[in-house]
Design goal:
- The complex is a heterotetramer of chains A (173), B (187), C (1063) and D (446).
- Chain A contains five helices and four strands.
- With 173 residues, chain A is of the alpha+beta class.
- Chain A folds into two domains: 67 residues; 67 residues, no CATH class.
- Chain A starts with 6 loop residues before the first strand and ends with a strand.
- Helices cover 41% and strands 1% of the residues of chain B.
- By secondary structure, chain B is mainly α.
- The N and C termini of chain B lie far apart (54 Å).
- Chain C has 1063 residues and is α/β, with parallel strands linked by helices.
- Among the domains of chain C are: 190 residues, Dimethylsulfoxide Reductase, domain 2 (3-Layer(aba) Sandwich); 132 residues, Barwin-like endoglucanases, CATH 2.40.40; 271 residues, Alpha-Beta Plaits, CATH 3.30.70.
- Chain C is globular.
- Chain D is mostly helical and 446 residues long.
- Helices cover 70% and strands 0% of the residues of chain D.
- Chain D has 15 helices and no strands.
- Classes of the chains: A alpha+beta (173), B mainly alpha (187), C alpha/beta (1063), D mainly alpha (446).
- Chains in contact: A-B, A-C, A-D, B-C, B-D, C-D.
- At the C-D interface, strand 32, helix 28, helix 29 and strand 36 of C face helix 5 and helix 10 of D.
Amino acid sequence: MTTKTAGILALFDYLDDVEAALETIKGRPEFKDHILYSHTSYHELVHHAEERYGPSQVRWFTLTGALTGATTGFWLPILCDLDFPLIVGGKTPAFSSLPPNVIFIFELFVLFGALATILGMLWLGRLGNPHARILDNRLMDDKFGIFVPGARVDGEEASLLKSQGAFEIKKTS
Amino acid sequence: MRALKILTAAVCILVCQMISTDAKAWWMWSPGDTVENSTQSMIGSGYHPDQPIDFPHNIHAGNLKMDCQYCHSAARRSQSAGVPPLNTCMGCHKIVATDKDPIKYIAEKYKRNEPVEWTKVHDLPDFVRFSHKPHVLAGFTCQECHGPMQEKVTAAQHAPLQMGWCIGCHKDNLDKGAKISCNTCHY
Amino acid sequence: MERLEFDELDKLSEQKEVFAPDATFEAPVKNIGKGHLFMAVEEVMPEIGATDLEVSGEIAESKGKGYPIARRDVMRLFSASAILGATACVKRPAEKIVPYVNQPIDFAPGNPVYYATTCNECPAACGVVVKTREGRPTKLEGGPEHPVSQGALCAIGQASIQSLYHPERHKSPLFQTNGHAKELSWEAAFDRIGAIVKGSKKVGIITKGSTGSQRKFYAEFLTKIGSKSENVFTWDANGLYSSISEAHRLAFGVEGLPRLELARASTIVGIGSDILDVGTSVVYHSKGLSQALSIKGLEKGELVQFEAVMSLTGGRADKRHVIPVGSELATTLLLVRALHEKTAAKGSKGARAVIASVLDANKGALDQAYDVIGVKKEVFEALAHKMLEKPSVLVAGGTASFDENATSLQVAGIFANILLGAYGSILNFDKGWSASPVKAGDMKRFVEASPDLDVVFVIGTDPSFSLPASYGFSEALTKVKTIISIQNFPAEVDRLAEFILPADHYLETWGDEEPVSGFLSIRQPAVRTTVNSRQPEEMLMWIAASAGAPMGYADYRTYLSAQWKSYYEMAGAKVDYETFVKAVLRRGFIGKLDTRTVGDLIDVKISLTLPESGLKLVAPFDHRLRDGSFAHIPILQEVGDGMTTIAWDSWIAINPNTCRKLGLKRNDVIRVEGPGGFFEGAVFPLPGLHPDAIVAPRGNGHTDKRSTISNGVGFNPLAAFSKAEDKVTGQPVTSGQKVKLSLVGKTYRLAAMQKHHDIGNRSDIIRTTSLATLANEGREKDLDSVPDLYPDILQRGDYRWGMSVDLSKCTGCGACMTACSLENNVAQIGREQILLGREMHWIRLDRYFNGEVDSPGVTFQPVMCQQCNHAPCEAVCPVLATTHDDEGINAMTYNRCVGTRYCGNACPYKVRRFNWWTYKWNTMGEKERDRNIKALNPDVTVRTRGVMEKCNFCVGRLRDAKLSAKERSKEFGREFRVQDSDVKTACQQTCPSDAITFGDLKNPGSGISKLRRDPRAYLLLGGFPEEKEYGLKTMPNVSYLMKVGADNESVAGSEGTQAPKHG
Amino acid sequence: MSDTVQWDKTVSDVNEGILKGVEGRPHPTYYIALVFALTLLAIGITGWGLIISFGIGLSGKSSPVYWGTFITDFVFWVGIGHAGTLISAILFLFRAKWRNSINRSAEAMTVFAVITAGLFPLIHMGRVWNGFWTLPLPNTNNMWVNFRSPLLWDVFAISTYLTVSLLFWYMGLVPDIASLRDRVKGFKRFVYGILSLGWTGNIRQWHHYETGYGFLAALSTPLVLSVHSIVSWDFAMALQPGWHTTIFPPYFVAGAILSGCAMVYNLVVPVRKMFRLEGFIKEEHLEACLKLTLLTSTIVAYAYAIEFFVAWYSGNYYEWAIFKGRATGPYSFYFWTMTFCNCVFPLLLWSRKIRYNIPVAMVICFLINIGMWFERYNIVISSLAEDFLPGSWGHYEPSIIDMCMTFGSFGWFFTWFLIFTKFFPFVSMSELKLIMPKPLRRKPTH
C-alpha cells in the first residue's frame, strides 16, 4: 500500500449497518475496489470477505510447510545415523530405530507447518509493512470502515454509504 | 539510526571475536577444566612453529633417502613416533658436517648432557588416545598424515587433525581393521 | 610385559588357574629363563647403580674415605617423549617434546617399562611389578610369578603409588628445637648428627619389622659406631608376628612363623582370625584360602570362624560363631579338647601328653566355658570330627592377638594343629618357614633401655601413634637426648625428634626381603628420588662416615650385593655374579627353601581364665589403614571399610541389639571411657558383633597439620586403653578392656557409602545355590539365549569381552577398587562428598547382610559396569557420548558428554559416576590441591567436571594387547589373538582371591567362556532364565557366579523364597 | 456458561478499559510484585552463575539421584505451559467462548513458562557451554546427535512448542498492538507500529488471519498432548521402576493441564485486580477455568490410583517396592502432600459456592501448584533414590542452590509476565469483542 490512493472512508458504529452497507454495495462497479475495515473478525464480515476473495490461500502454505517438515523429520535421523553409524543400545543404526523417527516427523511437521502458516499470513495479508497506511485511529477501536478508492466526499458513493448508517464520511488522500 | 549502526557493528565484532582463535578458548573455558583446556586444535593445518634448529628433513629423508623410522623408530611399536635422542644424531654427526652451526649446537648439547626441547607440531587434544603403532602396522605411509616431509625443512601441520578427518579415513579403511567405535580413540 | 616365548602363550591360557597351582614356594625358582622377565633398573638407568664419582674416575679416592657418595643430587631431565596430558592451563599450550640425550636400549617413548621389586608396606613382602612410563611409576601390580603375591596385590600395595607422589612428603632435612623446624642441607645434617653420634656410644635404632638385610645392616652400623648391636628395636603394631613366633619358640624351641599353605586345607577354623583383613601375609593367604574354599567338583573347603568382631574373614566364613571378647583362648582349648578326645587325632605321644596335661590343668574353667562363650559342646564335637576327616588347620589371631593371652592363644593353636596333623603339610615350620619380622618384646625392652640411650634413630615406623599413650613410649623416648626421625612421611614421632630426615619411598630404594627363609625377594628403585630424600641405610652410612667410623661400602647397593652372594652359590648358576644379579633384578626374586629339623612339642603351660561379662572395647586394625601408617593415602581412606562401607572416618561399631538396649542410634556421638582414658566417636550399629563388643578401629585419629589428608579424621581408640601387656611378648594390649559408654548429646554423620544393608528380597541380585543343587541340577548355561528382537548383537567384532565375578570368592578387601581408581585416574573426593553420595569408584563393593542380626551372613558383591549388550544408558544419551563398540564394551566418551546425567538414571546397576566438580587429587576438608600429575596414568583421560564416567573394562589395556597381537601376527605371519594371559583388567589383576575373571567370550576355550557357561553363572538383575523370566534383559557381558553354601546351608538372600519378577 | 454472562460493558468500552492499564499506572501492588519477582530473579541468576563457575556439584544431587529439582522444575514449567495452549488452541477449536477473556494471559503464561522450562535442561547440564551439541548441526567432528534419546525428543518438542506458542501468541497480539498503536503517540507509536507489523484491520488481513489462526490452533492442538507425552518419556523410557510405565503420557498431560489451569487462575485473579479488568474477565470465565481444573484433578487422581494398581497387579517386585516406598518411605511427605493437594482439596470445587469464592479458589489453586511441583519431585526423586540394587541406594535433599534455582525460575517467569502485563493488553481485545454483545443498531429480539 505504498501507492496512496485517494478516496473516502465511511465510518460505521454498528455491525448490522456495515453488513447492510456491504449487501448494498455488493456488485456495484464503483465499489469494486472497496476495502472493509473492522476492529475484530466478526463472522459476518469474514464471510463476506470469503465470498468476495475466495478461500484464503494460507492453507497451501501450511500444507507445503507441514509436508516439508515431515520429510525432513523422516530423513534427518536416518541420514545422520548413516553418516556415522554408531551402535547404540545394542542396535545397529538408521533403519532399526524407526519408531522414534515418528517423533521427529511429527515435531518438524508441526514446526514447519506453523512457520509456513505464519509466513503465508504475513505474505498474503501484506503484513510486516512498516509503512502501512492507517486511515483512521478509531478503526482498531470500535468502529467499522469502508474505504472506497477514487470516490469523493460529495460523491454518490458517499451518500449511499451515509444512507446505510455511516456516521462519518472522511476524505483520505 | 547512527547509534543503531554502531551497535550492530559492535555486536558483529564481538561475535567475530568469540569465534576467532583466541577468544574461543575464553568462551569454551570453565575454571579448572582439564579435558577442555586443550580442546580442539584451533590452529589447524599450516601450523609451523620455530624449532631450536632448522632440522632439514629434506636433506635426511629427501636427498639421503633415509627411512623415516630410522630416527622416529618408536612409530611402529609405540603410541608416539618419538623424536630421536641426541645419541642417534651423534651417531653420524660425530664425523659428518661437524662444521655447521646446528651440528655444533647439538654437539654442545650432547656434551653437556642436555636434551633439545622441540616444539610439538602435530598435537592432539589430551582426550584423544592416538597411537602410531596400528597405523604403521596397517601399512600407512607417514606422508599420508604428515605430508611430504622429504621436501620440507622443519615440520608444519599437514592434516587438519579434526575428528571428522580421522573418521573419514577410518570409514574408508574398515576392511583394514580400522574402527569407528568411540573408544578406539577416547577412553 | 615381555615374554620370551611367544608360542607358549596359547598353551598358557589353557591352564585351569592362572596362578600357580599348589604351594608356590616349592616349585624351584632357580630357573631364570622361564616366565616373566622385567627390566633391571641398572640397565635402563645405568647411573642409578653407579656413583657420580665412579663416572668421573674419582672412585679410588672416595673408597679410601669410605664415604658413600650421593649420586642422585641432580634431578636430571629423565624424560618423556611428550609431556603427557593433564597439565591444567586455560589456553592450549605449545607442548614441548624433550627426547633423551642417551636413550636406553629397547626403549620406545610411549611404551611402559616394567621393573620387578618388592613391596615394603608390610613385612609380607609381596613381589610387585612397577609399570613406569617415561621414568615414572604409574601403577603397581603383583609380580605374576612371585610366590607371595602370585600376581595379586592388596589395596595398600596398590596405593603405594600415592604415597610415592604424596605432595606432603618431607621436602628436606629438618632440625627441630622447641617445636620450631629449620631446614638443613644434607651435608650439614650428616655432619651434625655424625658429631653427636661420635660423642655418644649409646645409640639405638627403632625400625619397622622387616625380614631383609636391613636389620643386619643396622646392627652392623651400631657395631661400627661402637654401640651395642642389640640396640635395634623392631616394632610392628600387628601383634601376630611376635605372638606366633614366640608361641613357636615356647612350643618347639625355635623362633619363626610357619608358612601357612591354606590351599592344601579342606576345613579351616579361624579363631578371631583376620587372615583376610590384615594377618601376616594377606595376599598370600587370600590366594590360599580362595583355592581351599573353591569348588572342586562337588566338594568345597570350609571356613569356620569364631570371633567377637565382624572381620572380613568372618564375613567370608561359611559358618560363623559369635563369641565374647577375650574368649578366644577358651574356644581354642575347647576345640583342642574335642580333638584330643577323638581317636583319629594325630600328634606324637609326647605331644599328646603335654596337651592332656594342659587340658587337665584347666578342666574346671573349660567345663564352664561352654556357657560363657555361648557355643554348645556338640558344635565342637562335630567340628573336631569334620576336621579330622580331611586336611584341616586352625588359624588364630586377629583382635585376639592384641590381648593378654595372645601368645597362649597361639600355643593353643599349635596344640590343635598338632592334633590335626597340620604341621608338615599345611603349616611348614621345618621347610621354608618365615622369620619373624619383629623381635618379641622389643618395645618393652626399649622402654626399659631408654634412659641409657643417648641417640635414637626412628626409621620408618611411628610407635608414638601406634602404641597406646598409656604404654609410655613417648615418655621413654623423651628421655633420650637426641632423636633422629627418618620417615618418608610426617609421623607423630617427628614431634619429639631433633632431626627429621626425609627417607626414600620404597619405590626409590634398594633393598631385599626374605619372606620365607631361603627365598630372596629383591627391591630395586623404579624411579629417581622424586623429592629431596635419601635411602635411610645410606644416611646411616653417611653418618657413620661423618662420625669417623665409615662402614666401608660405596653404597647400600654394594652392601646388598655382598649379601646376595650366598644365593648365587645356592643357585649354582653358570654365569658370573654380575650377570646373575642382573638376571635376578629382572626377575625380582630367587631362592630355594631352607630346611631345618624341628623337635617335638616341649612341655608348655597355659592357664585359662574366662572373660568376665560387660562391655569391652576392641580396637582392631582397619584393614586399609592398618595401625594408621596409611591414613595419609587418599585412596585408602576413600575405599572405605569393607564391612561398614564407612570412608574417611572412625566409627564405634556396636551390635544393633545392644544399641537398642542402650538407647543408641546410628550417628549418635558417644564417649567411650576406658581405664586409660576416653575418646568420642559416632555409633555405627553393625550386625554380627558380640553384644558386649564395642569395636572401634585403629588407623585414624591423626592430629598432625602436616598431613592434610589424615589430620582430624576420626579418632584414635587407643586413648582408652590402660597399660597392659601380653605376659610373654610384652606386646601392648589393645583389646578387651572394659569400658563405659555415655551419650555426648551430639550426632555426627558417618560417611557410609552404602545406605541399605540387605537385598530386600530381591533374589536376582545375590543368587545362591548349594553343592547338592549343583550336583543334581547343575548343567551348562547359555546366558545369552535371551529372546531378543536383535539377534545379531553378539556377533559383531573379532572379540567379545566378558567378565565373571565369583561371589563365593570375594572377600570385600577393596583391592579391586584401589587398583581401578589408580589405573583409571578416578578421583578421591573426601568425606563431605561421600556424605552426599558422590563416590567415584568405578567398581564398588556392595555388602549385604542376611539372616539374624546377631549372626548374619555376609555377601560382598563387586559391581562394575555390566557392559550390557542392550545398554539402557546408551539409548538415552542425546549427544552419543556413550555408545557400544563392536567388542561388546559400552564406551563412554568423556569429551562428548554434556552432563545431562540421563545415562546415570537409566542404568539399573547405578555404576555410572558423575564428576560434580573438577575433583582435585584430594579435595578434602578445606584444602584443595591439584591432582598430582605424576601419579596419573597417562593412558587414561582425566575427566573434567560435568562429565559422566564409568568402568570401561580397562579398554586401554585391551587396545595395547590387541596391538601386540597384531604386531606379533605381522612378525610371525600368522594370526595371533589376544589370549587370557595377555590382558587383565586392573581389578582382576589385583584380586587376591581370584574372584574376577576376564577375557574373550568369542574364544570358547577361554576362562571367561567357561565361567559364563558354568552352572552357577547368572546375570545381575537377569531374573531367572530357568523359569523363562529374563529380568531386565539388559544382557550384560558381566556375569556373576552364585554363592555356594557349604553343607547345603543357605546363604545370603535365599530367605526371599518368592522370586521377584520384572514386569 | 458464558452465554449467561451479564455484560455491563460494551464493545466500545473494551479498548478504553483494557488499554488504560497499559497507558496509565497500574495498582501499586503491581510494583511490589515486580520488585519481588526481580529479587527472586537475582537469586536465580546468582545461583546459575555459581553453578557455572564452580560446578553442578553445588546442587544436592548425587549418585543415584542424578536428577533433582532442576528436572522437577523443568517438568513443572512445561506442565504450566500446557494449560495456555489448551485454552487458546483446543478451546478455540471447540468454540468455548469463555476462553476469549483469558486466552491472552494463558498464552503469555505458556510462552514464559516454556522459556523458563527450557532454561532448566541447560541449568541442569554439567557442561552447559557444550549444550549446543544437542542440536544436529554439521561440524568438523562428523558427530551427530542420538535420535533415539528422549532428551533429543525433548529438544525438538520443546523448541517446536516454544516456537509455535510464541507465534500463536504473537499473532493474537498483532491486532491488539495495532489498537494500542492507534492510541499512543511519539516513540511509543513507533515501537508499537513496528510490533503491529502494519496491521490496519482491513478485511483481507482478517480473512487470512482467521484461516491462519485456525491452522495454528489445529497444529498446536496435538502439541498439547505431544509435548508433555514426550517429557513423560524422559522418564518412561528409562528402566527405573516407578518411571517405566505406559500410563505416563496421559497422566502427565492431565497433570500438566491441572497445574496450568490452576496457574492461570492464580495469575489472572491478581492481574485482573491490578489492572482493574473485572469488567472484562468475568467471574463466570474464572469459574469455567476452575471447572476444567476440577476435571483434570479427577483425571490425575485416577492416574495416581491406576499407577498404584498396576504396580501391584503387574507383580513386578521392583515396581511395587517403589510405590510402597513412595507412600511410606523417606519421601512419603512429598507423596501425601501431592495426593492431598492434587486430589483431595480440588474436590471442594464441586461446590458452586466455592468456585465463586475467589479467595478460597485462589488458595486451592495455589495448593494445586504446590502439589503438582511435589508430584514431579516425587516422581523424579523417589524412583531414583531407591531403585534396583539396595547397595546403591541413596538419598536426596535439595541444596540451597537447588532452591535458589527453583525460586529464581519463579522470579524469571513473573518478571517476564509482569513486564508483559504492563506493556501489552492482558486481555485479547479483538477476541473479547467477539463474545460480547455485538454492536447492533437493531437490538436482537430475544
